[in-house]
């Protein structure tokens, strides 16, 4: 392994300016990207997928971790030559895919072997990408290490009763455990975004503990939190456009007080409600 030139030099050499339409805010502090990469844990023998490598600030320490191979998925073709050059400095094989991570079939790409995903996510696609990975069947990843804007990170890890608690925390809790492990102020990025960020580490639950009907869970949580200040009797009844007695029956079948508000019900309550809703549909 030899050392690639400093990131800023490479950015200048390849003329890589941040493009706001791709949500580009770069991490150029290799101490910070090194810390983020280390959160992947022991990746020997694994494939690491990095989404949105940009100029490669996180790519470098990921290559140093020496996984089986690193797959970098980048939508903006301007970065590909610089990423190819970066890969040439390391022994870990770097495969670069130019494309949209939302459309990627990760399991097919990695052939079913163990996978860790790491990303400094573009803000506009962070939530849909996370939901895509939570819904993956079979769950193909061993760990997700994801930088989100701070408010989104708080919504991923929130518990019942907190103001950030809602659909995202419940979908996450259905299949995984999540924690915020690192905060990054806006000034850590070039150019700085308007908001602070945080890294969330997400590990899958053992298969037997997962609630896997995320489609049903999305339906009930969307209805329940669509009117978060109303009682569940009201919010679910309005969303379903059905008589309140049917809504009430579902809530009682799930062991939930129809007079409670969505934000007070822990994820397990919503799993039971999703089951009752599915069973009632037959
Ligand atoms: N990882 C780099 C860093 O930390 O400096 C860049 C982070 S920047 C916030 C997000 C990167 O994701 C950009 O390079 C952008 O082009 C890329 N990107 C945006 N949407 C994408 C998508 N749907 N699929 C793949 N890459 C995407």
Question: Care to describe what's here?
Answer:
With 282 residues, the protein is α/β, with parallel strands linked by helices. The chain has 2 domains: 203 residues, Vaccinia Virus protein VP39 (Rossmann fold); 68 residues, Helicase, Ruva Protein, domain 3. It contains 12 helices and 9 strands. The strands form 2 sheets. A 7-stranded mixed β-sheet has the order 4-3-2-5-6-9-7, with helices on both faces. Helix 9 crosses helix 10 and helix 9 packs across helix 12. The model has no long low-confidence stretch (mean pLDDT 93). The structure holds S-adenosylmethionine. S-adenosylmethionine binds next to strand 1 and strand 3.
Number of helices: 12
First and last CA, distance: 59 Å
Largest sheet: 7 strands, mixed
Rg = 21 Å
* Text of the CATH class of the largest domain: Alpha Beta
User: What number of structural domains do the residues give?
Assistant: 2
Enumerate the spans where pLDDT stays under 50 for 5 or more consecutive residues: none
CATH architecture grouping of the largest domain: 3-Layer(aba) Sandwich
Question: What name does the CATH topology of the largest domain carry?
Answer: Rossmann fold
Helical residue percent? 25-40%
Global mean pLDDT: 93
E-strand count: 9
SS content category:
alpha/beta
Main sheet: strand order: 4-3-2-5-6-9-7
Compressed to H and E, one letter per element, the order equals: HEHEHEHEHEHEHHEEEHHHH
- CATH-level-4 superfamily name of the largest domain: Vaccinia Virus protein VP39
Bound molecules: S-adenosylmethionine
| Molecular shape | elongated
Per DSSP, what share of the residues sits in E-state strands of 2 or more residues? 15-25%
